[in-house]
Amino acid sequence: MIRAYKFLIRPTMGQSIALGEMLRDHCSLYNGALQERRDAYRHASKSSVRYGQQSAQLKEIRAFDPERQGRWSFSSQQATLRRLDKAFAAFFRRVKAGETPGYPRFRGVNWFDTVDFPKDGDGCRWDSTPNDPGTRVRFQGVGHVKVNQHRPVVGKVKTVSAKREGKRWYVILTAEQATPEPLPRTGSVTGIDMGVSDFLADSGGGFVPNPRHGRKAAASLEAAQQALARFPRVRRDKRTRNHQRAVERVADLYRKVRRRRLDHAHKTALDLVREHDFIAHEDLKICNMVKAPAPKPDPDTPGVFLANRAAAKAGLNRSISDAGWGVFLTILHAKAESAGRDVIAVDPRDTSRTCPECGHVAKESRPTQEKFHCVSCGHSAHADTVGARNVLRAGLARREASPAWREAPSFMRGRSHVSIVQETDTR
């Protein structure tokens, strides 16, 4: 299996400048390749430019501009061109599927924050000074950079990436490992129901409170964004130092919320994986759940719209996004795979309207958000606990019916395991 590791690196001032120049030059290469594809389609009888053609031009580009392009790794530049090729492949896939295409866009300096090295030893070297007491990673054109390695790397390092997050720099490794030893069996199974008032409820009657990290930081974010709004909008190179501090303040607050949300997701997922052999959860279509409601034109008055509860839906969408269900479920699947646990996603329809005792399905059985009272048999319980019990029953039935349940849930389809692990910063 492939496992990703993310470590903080501590470059010197000169190395920080070199890393920034590396991102800038790779961003310039990405934008230049995108412009070439656009021009070829518009002016050359709608012909297309492929990755192989652009990769073959790298030698000439490096010779023409040795100061900006020739100093960096050839393989990392190929990886940047592959990133653009993947963006176009995803664009054409969405066009064929009838989805919103999303044509690849030019990247600004702040939008391009990662440089990939496809092979350890080709333009980069992990743990490049083994006799040194501190771990270092070497990047071509940058040098040996200190690494804050908080855990050992198990397996053979395959790829290395340098990433900038605000003022901090990170190195992301992917290592190939043998299948880990599964955790001891506990004999316990559970179903979980995701919610907003509580982060989740399990089939045993337990609840995990919703930390609401975004809501707790809302006041600080509002003040920081108001302070930023007082500055006129100017180009980045024209900003004053106070303007830059205001921008960094907003970014730091958002980054802190993200880290807290990740920390909560990791700890909650780890507790579930350690305590249960089998976990069933709802296959949530989160992208559809956070869509804004469609406008309702007034048929009697042209140009006038009826109330569609858009404000209430916007508040619910913020709460769903703040809970971070997608991040949590992604981490849960990654940790379960490493621990040898089984996780299955089931259809969430009517899970909170079905009585777990008699099986009767009725909307009236759930009079409030938290209360469930079956109109057929009179069974009463917390609505989220009822939903978790029904999710567990559906998961067990699907597991026993066919081994085909091991397909990825909807929020993970079309994504590689490596990308998922990198995004979740697996511990």
Task: List the main descriptive attributes of the protein structure presented here.
427 residues; 2 domains; 7-stranded antiparallel β-sheet; 16 strands; 42% helix; 19% strand; disordered C terminus
What can you see in these coordinates?
42% of the residues lie in helices and 19% in strands. The chain is globular. It has helices spanning 13-43, 51-56, 58-64, 74-97, 213-216, 218-229, 241-275, 286-289, 310-323, 325-339, 383-401, 417-424, and strands at 2-10, 114-117, 124-126, 136-139, 143-148, 156-165, 168-176, 189-194, 198-202, 207-209, 278-282, 296-297, 305-306, 342-346, 371-373, 380-382. 26% of the residues are buried. The protein folds into two domains: 2-176, no CATH class; 189-424, no CATH class. The model is unreliable at 416-427 (pLDDT under 50).
